[in-house]
Each structure stands twice: as structure tokens, then as C-alpha cells.
Amino acid sequence: MHRDRARPPGRQPLGRGATIKAVFFDVGDTLCDYDGAAHTAIAGACEYAVGHADELTAAGLHDAFVRESRHAADEMRRWTASRLAASAGLEQSYHLWERALEKCGVANPILAHAAACHYELSRMRHLKLFPDAVPALQSLQGRARVGVIAEGAPGIVNEELSLLDIRGLFSVVIIASEAGYSKRDPQLFAHAVREVECDPGEAAHVGDSLESDVAPAQQAGLVTVWVNRAEETPDAGPPAPDYTVSSLESVPELLLGQP
């Protein structure tokens, strides 16, 4: 059973007569199970690589790749214009697998490229929408402008939206690297608001990350909805969202009231 909570000292529930004119969504782990697809793809790529290098173990390569991925994510956040994100996709994946293999004692660019291709194809194949995603998006149609605020290579983001068959449900797609900002920069969200020609307080952002979704959107003046599917207890540091939900099911009513 999901729980929907409003921040006690923050905005009151908007309800009927709401002034929200635009609702933006994060993609990975908000609309679709990105982590689940990535974990499956990593495991498959590791098994593939192990079959072509006797000195490798699946567990060792898995740990090395996860460490390299986290390091790359940290590096990406240091680039104001998110230039690493702009070059993400197969090229970035290749470099991650190359470094992970090297950490495991295997210097083999061909194997790194093959593992990267295996990983990217598998991740795309296993990417699935959460069951509540399409109903929530469809419920917003005609009531507010619906958009995406995402990070990553533009080609990859657009391909994911097409594969998930939801591209037609968005009137605007904002990709951090194309806009020239990082996902954690409030200016990205201010840019998105300008794109839909409304005031910040007339827009809402829905995402699963307190750091990459709630904090910058809140700083830009947007109404924020934290999607906390695991119903985790947040640390004291991050800002409190205006709303916390464990499902997208109630987002349309929370923001716009009953249709």
C-alpha cells in the first residue's frame, strides 16, 4: 500500500483549482526500472567476458565495473555542462569496461568493446516501465504540459523513450547535456520552465532522487514530488520534498486534483 505525504510546513496540497500547468518527470527509476535492467545487463556482460578470458571471475569483474561506474558518475557531476553525459552511451560504456578489465589484469580493448555492446543491448532489452507509469502519464494528458528532465546522451535518452513507447506522451524533452547543465543544477529546471512558458511555481518535477531531482527543482522554485518506491527513510541532510509517494498512481490527483 503506498503512502502519499505532504511536507508539513511546506505547500498545502494543491487539489481542485490547482495552478500547476506543467509536470516534468525523471526517467530512470522513476518511470522505468533502470537499476534492475542495469544489474541484469552487468551480470550478463561479466559472464560473457569471463567466457573469453580465463583469468577473470564474474564477481571480480562485476565489482570492478560497479566501482568504475560510480567513479564516472562522480566525475560527471563535476562538469557544469555535463560533457561526460553528452558522450555517454556505447563510447562511455566501452571506457568503463576497458578500465574494469584492466583493474582485473586484462588489457583487451576488443573484449572491452564486446562487453560494452553486450551490456548496452541487454540493458535496453530489459528496460521496463513501472506498471503505474503509463496510467499516470495518460491521466495528465490535456490537463497540463507533460515533460521529461533527464541526463545522459541525447541519443540514448530518446531511444529509451521510444523503446518504452512513451515518447508521444511528452510535449517536451529536456536533456541536461543538450541544455548545457548538469542534472543537479537548478538552472536546468529553470530552463525547463522557460521552455513550457510558465512560472516556476506553476510547474512540478517528479523524480526518485533527493539530490538530483528534489533539491535542484526545489531551488528553482518548482513543486517537488519524491518517488520513494522502497519507502526508505531519507537522511537528515537532503531537502524535504513537497510530496512523497511510493507510486505514481496518485501524482495526478496530488498536483491537479480530481479531473
Overview of the molecule:
The structure is a single chain. Helix content is 47%, strand content 11%. The protein has 259 residues and is α/β, with parallel strands linked by helices. The chain has two domains: 5-33 and 129-256, HAD superfamily/HAD-like (Rossmann fold), CATH 3.40.50.1000; 34-126. It has a seven-stranded mixed sheet. Helix 1 crosses helix 2, helix 2 packs across helix 4 and helix 9 crosses helix 10. The protein is elongated. The relative contact order is 0.19.
Q: Strand portion, in percent? A: 5-15%
CATH third-tier fold name of the largest domain? Rossmann fold
Overall number of domains: 2
Query: Over all CA atoms, what is the radius of gyration?
Result: 19 Å
| Biggest sheet strand line-up | 1-7-6-5-2-3-4
| Arithmetic mean of pLDDT | 87
CATH superfamily of the largest domain: HAD superfamily/HAD-like
Which outline best applies?
A: elongated
Total of helices: 11
What order do the SSEs take from the amino end to the carboxyl end, as H and E? EEHHHHHHEHEHHEHEEH
What is the level 1 CATH name of the largest domain? Answer: Alpha Beta
Q: Do you know the CATH architecture of the largest domain?
A: 3-Layer(aba) Sandwich
Helical amount among residues, as a percent range?
40-55%
SS-derived structural category: alpha/beta
Distance between the termini: 23 Å
Biggest sheet overview = 7 strands, mixed
What's the number of extended β-strand segments?
Answer: 7
